[in-house]
């Protein structure tokens, strides 16, 4: 089967490059909708002009400037209770919010009596003659319903007025500066300047007031605290005096002397302890030697001269020597016992002295610690009292020299001209907005459009070449179609059919298609009309043409002709009649017609039979062109069967009617049985709608060639 050159190289390329935006196509779409875009722009321009010149109320804008003082004048070297403002961004943002605070705006409202200004107090504004509220009230009155009464409190009125003033004000910080710009916009130029200036003044006064209040509060607190600290100091001093009176005179030097005395006593105790131990040891040795009974041993231990003399007399055996030795021995033992007792007595006495002095040290240490603690408390209370007293005096002085952290840098002047509405800007923006809305509407309409209006769109969506564009033939009845084409051979429709015929013949000059099947996606797309017109055109070239009614289910071909046709090709296939008896020759068409007939056999089964294939092959021997008007592809499977016998398939797509899904599904249905249309026909084009949609008239440029 011959397929004409594809528009894109591959069918159904609607997903190819789907994410890319075709700028040219977009501009073409906008150009086609230029009238709608221009209309939207004109309407928006009219609305903008009506608003700017008829509805909008002129307003005036005045601006004052306040500078934040990052450096304060230091009259006295006294630290302020409230420190000055810093220059960081957070401080600047805070001050902007202070300028817009409801408390400050409330002061402004009360100061300028804005509660009695109808511009800010909506309750004072006169009711319009025509409004929703008036209409609702009138309807309620007709039906006897009472209007509910609402009592608005003074606080509510004040809050609403504050909100209105806030809407009329704006505060901003000039970039890279400590300057705040206060902008007031009202319907009165003098009022705008007054509000901007007064808000700046109230802001500065508020800074001084806040500082004064905080300083006053600090003074009161310091006075109360100084009184309390004075009482605490006097109490501490009295306690120290009472403790000093009831305690022996002590000091650190006396305590150090006692510590030195204890050290000396302990040193003496060590000496006495050694002496006591030595005397006790000597006494023990003397007693042991005496018990041994050896005079020599005792004499050696005693080391006494008199004892040595008595020992010599004893050894010489002189008279009285033993008694003298014994007497001296007892005397030495008694003397040793006395010395040992005296040493123990001295050691006991020195230990008692140490214990007494140590006790005195402990007692005096505790009393000294208590005394020093009381002295420190008195000193601390005195220092704290003096510090608070000094700060109280400084704070009292500051109450009279408070300075604001800002100054009025620039006063607002009465604006000479309104700041809004800016009529030229309103008109320009209205026009731009209208054009944008119009363009958006055109694009949305184009996106929502699910049918085919141009051959380019059809080729882009399907990937098949559009070989014909057939305009709508304006006739009242189907039987008038052939008459129209015959009587108006130079009409746009006739020329379009000739172009279609030429495209089919030039597809292959050597072997032009003999069997041509005409089909579509759904009924009503003009395939039968095109089959008749194409048959007439082929016959006009002198070719022998046969038109077969392949849609045997509906059989609408008879509605185009007035002659009788008792037999059809089914009768020929069954052998009931001959081919010549079944064929009807139409003089106006100048071609033969083979009508369809009712059959008990399913049409698809009939067309797929070998008998029907042989029948078509037989017809090839008798005719130059055989045109089969087949059923729609999506309705029944007949077209997919008939297409197997055709040399060319032309696929009709009704202009602005067949949906993308229908056409693509129909083409896929043919491709599922390895059939590809030779070309597509955009049929029943409505030229008047084509202009209205902004696509232009494909035939307008060549209207001189057409005679409708």
Automatic annotation (TrEMBL):
Keywords: ATP-binding, Cell inner membrane, Cell membrane, Coiled coil, Kinase, Membrane, Nucleotide-binding, Plasmid, Transferase, Transmembrane, Transmembrane helix, Tyrosine-protein kinase. It catalyses: L-tyrosyl-[protein] + ATP = O-phospho-L-tyrosyl-[protein] + ADP + H(+). It is an enzyme of class 2 (transferase). The chain crosses the membrane at residues 35-54, 426-444. One of its GO terms (cellular component) is plasma membrane. InterPro entries: AAA_dom, Bact_polysacc_biosynth/exp, GNVR, LPS_length_determ_N, P-loop_NTPase, Wzc-like_C. Residues 19-109 form the Polysaccharide chain length determinant N-terminal domain. It comes from the Bacteria. Its EC number is 2.7.10.2. This is non-specific protein-tyrosine kinase. The lineage of its organism: Bacteria, Pseudomonadati, Pseudomonadota, Alphaproteobacteria, Rhodobacterales.
